[in-house]
From TrEMBL:
PROSITE patterns: PPM_2. It comes from Desulfitobacterium hafniense (strain DSM 10664 / DCB-2). Its EC number is 3.1.3.16. GO terms for molecular function: protein serine/threonine phosphatase activity. This is Protein serine/threonine phosphatase. Residues 486-693 form the PPM-type phosphatase domain. It is an enzyme of class 3 (hydrolase). The chain crosses the membrane at residues 24-52, 82-99, 106-128, 134-152, 173-190, 196-224, 236-253, 259-276. SUPFAM superfamilies: PP2C-like (SSF81606). Keywords: Hydrolase, Membrane, Transmembrane, Transmembrane helix. The keyword Transcription regulation does not apply. Gene3D superfamilies: PPM-type phosphatase domain.
Length: 697
């Protein structure tokens, strides 16, 4: 089992972290981005404010205050636009926070922001007289704000990944748009000879060059040099070219570290400024130098992306080819097993074949053989066919006295015929039972071969892509996640028992995914404990090998079904948390309801499915949900849920009254309440696993 105990949170660490959960950074970001403009429009403030309202975490109020301050600074040069932005934000604040928690919150955010912005802009612009051009301008402003609001909401969800430097392309592009808004807001802001937009631009070109190399730095430099103003004038185009070339030249020295990057950047900046913009040489060098100083003080991280990675060595290519071949072999074996399964289903004998067996045994030595099967063939054939049908329908109730009189007159050995038919049908039922078991086993085997083929195929892709320079073990991942996962566990055993049949696990099975599992073995005591523990160990091995959760559960089910003729089944309640987002996947196989405790309400999630290990194929219900910081996920077994014999859901009402500080506090409170309600006369084992996602401060 994974090292789940290391996940206890130590609150208050890394207080200085650069996220939107503090006070200074949200205010500064809101202040700058609200001032940003494109072609005379101010779309950034409304979009960022709406995204903050939906984000709804610590730092939101400071961010909105910053947006308000930034908009207020526009009053001197554009009072109408400033009032329009504030009015739009005021209207959005009435209903956008209510969208929080909805599965389509981002879609509704974009639509509502676009509609409100467009309507307010149209009302303000056409206050005196309506014109078509003003309506088109309002529509463009609404669409732009709606789209940017969705992008900014996406960016806020993945801010931690951005500062770690291991973000995806989509996350990087979202934050690049925020940076464009910031640079646009900084345009023209200077303190003596220090140009703040150049300071920020220099810092981020160096940041991208260090982590992603020349190509990415060149693209970012060109975009940040041109897009903040989006004006086709010689100075703006020159800035795009200068910063694009500066990013490319700086990124070429990526392997030389910060010193090499800094020297390259300052050299290229000096060269281009001397020849192209000599009038701002001192200001440009001073501002770029401050950006370089900030970059040198910023902590370095090792990126998982490498845009200038070397080509795989021939040995690696050979290994990848062999691994792919093995995956194809397992695929072919799976197809063969499926084909064999289909052939087994077709091999059931028809009644005429069974009649031939009966004739060989009973009619062969009968003196009337020639009469029955030559002159009266059709009558004899229909008699036997009806006899088989009757025995198959009536089973053991058929005897000679129940048969029609004309059958007795026609066949002198009807009693022997009846016994023969009953024997043959019983024999066929036995064969059919084994045939069904063989078919089920072949089906399970085919699924396992397909799962193994998929795992090997994923391994080949990883070898070919060479994503991870450093291999990270699950236990190491668990220790690294202790800063933002708070886990609490409490349990009790049935009265008179010393061992609980319920078990749990916490498993870091992927770089961005963490599984929390609760399992209830059949019965109580040592046997149930061994069964649930075995199931968790097998599931852990399958997940860490590379099986998808659903495939791993099917594989576990097949193992338990084939393992023993005795009944051996377990329930599985799994919560899979995405550590880079709020996504939560609940997989409930024969499990009790689960709960998410939110600030305003307790939500219950349940499904109806059989436990693992009963049938050859188990239904795997999957529930897609969200688990945000400061919310609790509660997984329990039936020993907790069924404390009250009347079937009432006491746990949901109990959770409604709780206001815990930690996950362990809530887990212990649930167990104490269960003991109290049962009068300490516990009829079953019980376990509760509580998971809380913390906010970084």
């Amino acid at each position: 089992m994974a090292e789940w105990a290391t996940l206890k949170t130590k609150q208050g660490l890394r207080k200085e972290k650069l996220t939107l959960e503090g006070h200074f950074w949200p205010f500064l970001l809101g202040l700058l981005i609200a001032r940003g403009s494109i072609l005379g429009l101010y779309p950034f403030g409304i979009a960022f404010g709406a995204a903050l309202m939906l984000h709804g975490r610590k730092g939101t109020m400071m961010g909105l205050l910053g947006v308000t301050a930034g908009v207020s600074s526009l009053f001197l040069k554009d009072l109408a636009s400033g009032l329009q932005i504030l009015l739009t934000l005021l209207i959005l604040s009435l209903f956008v926070p209510r969208l929080r928690g909805n599965k389509r919150e981002s879609l509704y955010l974009g639509i509502s922001t676009a509609l409100v912005t467009g309507c307010v802009a149209l009302a303000v612009l056409s206050f005196g007289q309506f014109e078509v051009s003003l309506g088109m301008k309002a529509a463009v402003l609404g669409i732009l704000n709606g789209g940017l609001a969705v992008v900014f909401r996406f960016a806020l969800r993945y801010q931690d990944a951005v500062w770690r430097g291991n973000f995806t392309r989509e996350q990087g592009m979202a934050w690049l748009l925020i940076l464009i808004g910031v640079l646009s807001g900084l345009h023209g802001v200077m303190f003596k000879e220090i140009n703040f937009s150049v300071v920020v631009l220099s810092f981020f070109i160096l940041f991208i060059a260090q982590r992603f190399g020349a190509g990415a730095a060149a693209g970012v430099g060109a975009m940040l040099g041109f897009l903040p103003q989006l004006e086709f004038n010689p100075q703006n185009l020159m800035a795009a070219g200068i910063y694009g070339l500066a990013g490319f030249g700086t990124g070429a020295f990526q392997k030389l570290g910060k010193l090499g990057l800094g020297v390259a950047f300052m050299s290229i900046t000096l060269m281009f400024t001397v020849y192209l913009q000599p009038e701002v040489l001192y200001s440009q060098l001073l501002s770029s130098g401050i950006g370089l100083l900030l970059f040198s003080l910023f902590p370095s991280t090792t990126s998982q992306h490498d845009f200038l990675k070397d080509k795989p060595m021939p040995e690696v290519e050979s290994t990848v080819t062999k691994v792919k071949t093995v995956a194809e072999i397992f695929d072919q074996i799976a197809y063969s097993a499926q084909a064999a399964e289909a052939e087994v289903g077709k091999s059931k004998p028809e009644i005429p074949e069974l009649m031939n067996v009966l004739v060989e045994r009973v009619c062969k030595n009968c003196p009337t053989l020639d009469t029955c099967w030559t002159r009266e063939f059709y009558r004899t054939y229909h008699l036997l066919f009806n006899l088989f049908e009757w025995v198959e329908r009536e089973e053991e109730k058929v005897n000679v006295q129940n048969l029609p009189v004309e059958w007795k007159r026609h066949c002198g050995k009807l009693k022997e015929m009846l016994l023969g038919v009953q024997f043959i049908m019983e024999h066929e039922k036995s064969i059919e039972s084994w045939r069904s078991r063989l078919t089920a086993n072949q089906e399970a085997l085919a699924r396992q071969f397909q799962s193994v083929s998929q795992v090997i195929g994923h391994l080949a892709k990883e070898l070919n892509a060479r994503h991870n320079v450093e291999q990270v073990k699950p236990a190491s991942l668990a220790r690294r996640r202790k800063q933002f996962l708070d886990v609490g566990v409490a349990s009790f055993t049935k009265k008179g028992n010393s061992i609980s049949g319920d078990n749990y696990a916490s498993l870091a099975f992927a770089p961005t995914q963490h599984a929390f599992i609760v399992s209830d073995g059949m019965g109580v005591g040592e046997g149930a404990a061994k069964m649930s523990s075995t199931a968790l160990n097998l599931l852990e091995q399958l997940l860490t090998t590379g099986f998808e959760p659903e495939s791993a559960i099917q594989a576990l089910n097949s193992i338990l079904v084939l393992r023993s003729p005795e009944e051996s089944f377990v329930t599985l309640d799994i919560g899979i948390l995405d550590c880079e987002s709020d996504d939560l996947k609940l997989i409930k196989v024969g499990a009790c309801p689960s709960y998410i405790v939110r600030e305003d309400k307790v939500h219950m999630f349940q499904s109806s499915s059989l436990p693992v290990g009963i049938l050859n194929h188990v239904e795997i219900p999957v529930i897609e949900e969200k688990l945000r910081p400061d919310e609790y996920l509660v997984l329990v077994t039936d020993g907790i849920q069924d404390i009250l014999k009347d079937g009432k859901d006491w746990l949901k009402k109990f959770l409604d009254r709780q206001h815990p500080q930690t996950a362990q506090e809530l887990a212990e409170a649930i167990v104490q309440e269960a003991r109290a309600m049962s009068g300490n006369d516990l009829a079953d084992d019980g376990i509760v696993l509580v998971v809380k996602k913390n906010i970084f401060h």
